[in-house]
Amino acid sequence: MSEAATATPPFHLAFPVADLPATRRFYVELLGCRVGREAERWIDFDFFGHQISAHLRPDEVAQARTNEVDGDQVPVRHFGAILEWQAWQSLAERLTAAGTDFIIEPHVRFKGEAGEQATMFFLDPSGNALEFKAFQDPARIFAR
After folding, report:
1. Which of 17, 27, 121, 138 could disulfide-pair with 104, CB 3.0 to 4.6 Å?
2. Other beta carbons within 10 Å of 128
3. What is the distance of C-alpha 16 from the center of its chain?
């Protein structure tokens, strides 16, 4: 098999937002995403190698309900990226320095278990929940 055939394909996610300029600032300036194609009512972002599309639909923006996970109330509807451990640390420091209001502060969950991971949750300007996580050993991402 060729390298391209065995590489993980990028995913695509479309989500509603209430304010495109605020969304652009958040994803570009805070998270470091590159803007792709755009039109009057949507913007594509390069989200850590994946394509996400913010669509202007204020009527569809809603706060996610939560479930308890390892003592935290995790927003059920969320998306994010799994980063390399040091990249996660750097992002957590950058977000903290920027005064990010975390839903769940950066920390390590499932300590000592197969799924041990660094995690943090916060909202974009439209209230979409994002989770960024990291594993010391990436082979443990799907460990049971």
Report:
1. 121
2. 24
3. 15
